[in-house]
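I have a small job for you when you get a moment. Can you supply me with one protein entry, sequence and fold together? It will help me judge whether the discrete encoding reads sensibly. Write everything out right here, beneath this request:
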Amino acid sequence: MAAILEVDHLSKRYGSGTSALNDVSLDINEGEIVALLGPNGAGKTTLISIICGLVVPTSGTVRVGGHDIRTDWRAARKMIGLVPQEIALEPFEKVIDCVRYTRGLYGLPPDEAYVEQLLRSLALWDKREARTRELSGGMKRRVLIAKALSHRPKVLFLDEPTAGVDVTLRREMWTVVRELRAQGVTIILTTHYLEEAEDMADRIGVINHGQLLLMRPKSELMGEFGKKRLVLDLYEPMATLPAELAERGLVLAPDGMSMIYDYDSHADRTGITRLMAELADKGVAVRDFATSQSSLEDIFMSLVEEDA
């Protein structure tokens, strides 16, 4: 699959000496959903702002659909739609006029059928004559998405798109995102809702201190970094854990009623069989057990803590 977005050795340093991005390189393929994760100040918004032409990089190049964002900026920007974090709308403008106006900024002729389809898909059609100041925060964010899609971009950036949106509206938005991906739109999102990234993304990138720590397929990332946890519930509480079991990696829960064992499910040997045999030898009666897989949040936190 061809890369529709190519970022090559991109850096941004401000006059104060602050380094917002440091030698970031990545390729994003047409039609995929990529989630960029990182703590506040990690460089996610700076990266998006450079690609969208809002910030000038210190060094490096960016191409969108083969168009350089600096030397062929007009063609590059026509391919991009951006939903920013901040809600900035003309308070007295009608919803439908916001979308029409943004479409016109790209030199496109009116297309009332498409505008109606777009507003309906975002549950905004009934609000089309409302002025934006009359809308809730969640509805205003939908208007931002409609504006970003008004010119049918090939690449859509969603910078914290569901911030301040209730659960119902969030699910509806992600339904729209999936439909866009099915139409071939490439989507890059940043989010603090890690369950969204885990559910939606094809690939996940982690940024911290202006550096791209990794960019991996979600399934590969979960498989390589994800650990499994075995929790063994006991019939009788245990005051202390025998040294031999502690050396095996077991941890006693504070209430003494269960033991916890973390292991790599992809290792040649997990050690569980030997562990269970040792428990039986020591007369430790296990009442029940359960396993769980590390979540994307666990993986994200471990990566960021390692880079701190």
The domain at 226-295 is CATH 3.30.70 (Alpha-Beta Plaits). The mean pLDDT is 86. Residues 167-182 form the longest helix (16 residues). The two ends are 35 Å apart (CA to CA).
